[in-house]
Amino acid sequence: MITLYGFGAGFGLPEISPFVTKTEVQLKMAGLPYRKERAMPPASPKGQLPFIDDGGEAVADSTFIRAHIERRYGFDFDAGLSLSERAQAWAFERMIEHHVYWALVGARWVDPVNFAKGPSHFFDGAPEHNREKLREDAQFRVAENYLLSGLGRHAPDDDVDLAVRSLFALSVQLGDKAYLMGNKPCGVDATAFGALAGILTPFFESGLRQRAEGFANLTAYVDRMMDDYYPEFAWTPLRQAA
C-alpha cells in the first residue's frame, strides 16, 4: 500500500498543505488505496512535503508523484481531454502553483496575526529555550522566499490585486462548469482545490480571502470538491459560512 506523508489536518482543513492535498485528492481520483502518516519536511528526500513510499520507492514532490502514479498504475488524470486542453490544464496548474500559492503563503506566514494563529504553532513542541527563535527564523525564511517569488516585492494591497487577477482567470475558466476542464474532474482540479481551499478556509482572515469570496463559482467549486473527496470532514459550506 502507498504511504502518503503530509502535515495532517489543521487550519479548518483536512490537510494543511495545498500540495499534500493535491496528491491526496489525486490518489483518491486514481482509486488507489493508501495510508497517511504525519511527517515534517526534513524527512522527505527533497526536504518538502508531500512524499510517498510506494513499495519501498520514495517519490517526492506532488508533480513527480502524479507522474509516478500515471507511469506505474497506468492512470490518466486528463483522460478525455484534447491535446490543447491538456496544455491549458498544465498552464493553469503552473499559474496556481507559482502565483496563487505564493499569495496564500503571504496571507498565512507574512501577516503577523495569521502567523501567530496558525504556522507559529508548528513549533509548539520545540524546546522552550529556543522555540521563539525557531519561529522567527522560519517566518524570516518564508518571507524571504515570498519576496523572491515576486509577490512579496509589492505593497500588501498590490500583491492581493495581482493574485486576484489569477483568481479571476480561474473563475472565467470554471464558468458554470462543475470542474475546471469540464463536467469531470481532472488532474488540475486537485491542484486548484488545494490552493483555493487554503485561501478560503474561514480559519484565517485576510484581504485575499475576502476578495476570493467574491467569486461565487470558486466558493461553490471548493464546496463541491470537499464533498467529492473529503465527505467525512466537518466542513461548513462556504456559502453558509459567508
Automatic annotation (TrEMBL):
<feature type="domain" description="Metaxin glutathione S-transferase">
    <location>
        <begin position="165"/>
        <end position="225"/>
    </location>
</feature>
<dbReference type="Pfam" id="PF17172">
    <property type="entry name" value="GST_N_4"/>
</dbReference>
<dbReference type="InterPro" id="IPR036249">
    <property type="entry name" value="Thioredoxin-like_sf"/>
</dbReference>
<dbReference type="InterPro" id="IPR026928">
    <property type="entry name" value="FAX/IsoI-like"/>
</dbReference>
<dbReference type="InterPro" id="IPR012336">
    <property type="entry name" value="Thioredoxin-like_fold"/>
</dbReference>
<dbReference type="InterPro" id="IPR050931">
    <property type="entry name" value="Mito_Protein_Transport_Metaxin"/>
</dbReference>
<dbReference type="InterPro" id="IPR033468">
    <property type="entry name" value="Metaxin_GST"/>
</dbReference>
<protein>
    <submittedName>
        <fullName>Glutathione S-transferase family protein</fullName>
    </submittedName>
</protein>
<dbReference type="InterPro" id="IPR036282">
    <property type="entry name" value="Glutathione-S-Trfase_C_sf"/>
</dbReference>
<dbReference type="InterPro" id="IPR040079">
    <property type="entry name" value="Glutathione_S-Trfase"/>
</dbReference>
<dbReference type="Pfam" id="PF17171">
    <property type="entry name" value="GST_C_6"/>
</dbReference>
<feature type="domain" description="Thioredoxin-like fold">
    <location>
        <begin position="18"/>
        <end position="114"/>
    </location>
</feature>
